[in-house]
Design a protein that fits this description.
By secondary structure, this protein is an alpha+beta fold. 16% of the residues lie in helices and 43% in strands.
């Protein structure tokens, strides 16, 4: 194999696909990137048996072929080359020669036959969605996925398309996030996408005006993001029924930033070792917040126009702040049904997002 390409193109491509490369693998080839040079293009792949990232860049291919090289080493070398033009060649001993200006490297490669094949996805369902819409939907829900492998299904988000409505739902047992958009699609599909895959999509979306194509198979999904394809396994299992109550015994509209700032002030007395709920006492015209820990006590008050019953309820400050910071609206509508039922946070009008935060039990003061 022998080709010439632009250093910047190669560096960006290898850096991005390397995020799907195993740091430590029983198959040595999985710690590398697969480079294929054919028909005037380079195809570069990274794969850890759960997620694969593939892209193509332009190149002058002098001799076709393919090779696997260490992702970490190759990425470091390409980034530090002195010139923009890179010449790469491999020989029959799998030695890879890298040349740019006066810099010259020789590294040992791995035969491409040792690299596992990426899954072939036979399309069952597919749709196209605007990149900015998908990015916002993922960003506003992925924070609520679980990192507990005891229930793997909740380490991902439910993607549901039905009746022209696209929903993304994430839950971890302490909170839930739902994001909804109208889409021009008549398909009906439900599948669970790992959080890791979603985070890679967020990193690869650079042009919000472009579209992202989803190709859904039986066990895998392909996201086509600009010139990258992200191939991911789907999580299997029964996802939680996420239906929400539509009525509330206590309800108020409040400035998102003001409420978040007050919760942050209460959280100054807590840390990973010192956990205590933020206590919210909600009455007709105000919300009193307080927090008491072994290091001290804090109090704050926010004027509010509350409709319904008075209620006193406690929350984990981080979970509540995550919901408020991902609301991305100036004001939110807060709905409560007593001190033991979850808080529901929605936009003032409509239901494009819904955040649910499970309360913490309060000790008697």
């Amino acid at each position: 194999m022998r080709f010439r390409c632009m250093r910047t193109d190669m560096s960006n491509a290898v850096s991005n696909v390397s995020r799907a490369v195993s740091a430590k693998a029983t198959i040595p080839a999985l710690e590398g990137v697969l480079i294929k040079a054919y028909n005037g293009n380079l195809e570069i792949s990274g794969y850890d048996l759960e997620i694969g990232i593939v892209t193509q860049i332009e190149a002058t291919v002098i001799e076709e072929g393919e090779i696997v090289v260490s992702a970490r080493l190759f990425n470091d070398i390409i980034r530090k080359l002195p010139e923009e033009i890179v010449n790469i060649e491999t020989d029959e001993r799998l030695i890879t020669y890298i040349n740019s200006g006066a810099a010259d490297y020789q590294i040992v490669g791995i035969n491409s036959t040792e690299y596992p094949d990426l899954p072939n996805v036979d399309e069952i369902n597919g749709m196209t969605v605007n990149a900015e819409i998908l990015k916002n939907m993922i960003r506003q829900t992925v924070f609520a996925t679980s990192d507990n492998m005891a229930k793997p299904i909740y380490t991902g988000s439910l993607f549901e398309i039905k009746g022209g409505i696209f929903r993304v739902v994430a839950v971890d047992g302490f909170r839930m996030a739902i994001r909804m958009e109208n889409v021009d699609s008549d398909i009906e599909a439900k599948f669970v996408v790992p959080a890791k895959t979603q985070n890679e999509i967020l990193k690869l979306i650079t042009d919000p005006k472009k579209d992202v194509t989803l190709t859904v198979g039986q066990r895998h999904i392909v996201f086509k993001v600009e010139n990258y394809s992200i191939i991911s396994r789907l999580l299997e299992g029964n996802f939680l029924d996420y239906k929400m109550p539509e009525s509330a015994s206590t309800e108020f509209v409040i400035n998102t930033r003001i409420l978040a700032s007050s919760v942050e002030r209460m959280a100054l007395l807590t840390n990973e070792k010192i956990q205590s709920p933020v206590r919210c006492s909600i009455t007709a015209d105000e919300i009193k917040l307080s927090c008491s820990t072994t290091v001290g006590r804090a109090n704050d008050m926010i004027p509010a126009s509350v409709v319904g019953n008075d209620v006193e309820i406690g929350f984990n400050n981080r979970y509540l702040l995550d919901a408020l910071k991902n609301a991305e609206t100036d004001e939110v509508r807060v709905m409560l049904n007593g001190s033991l039922q979850p808080m529901i946070i929605r936009p003032v009008t409509g239901d494009s997002f819904t955040f649910l935060v499970v309360p913490m039990r309060l000790a008697a003061e």
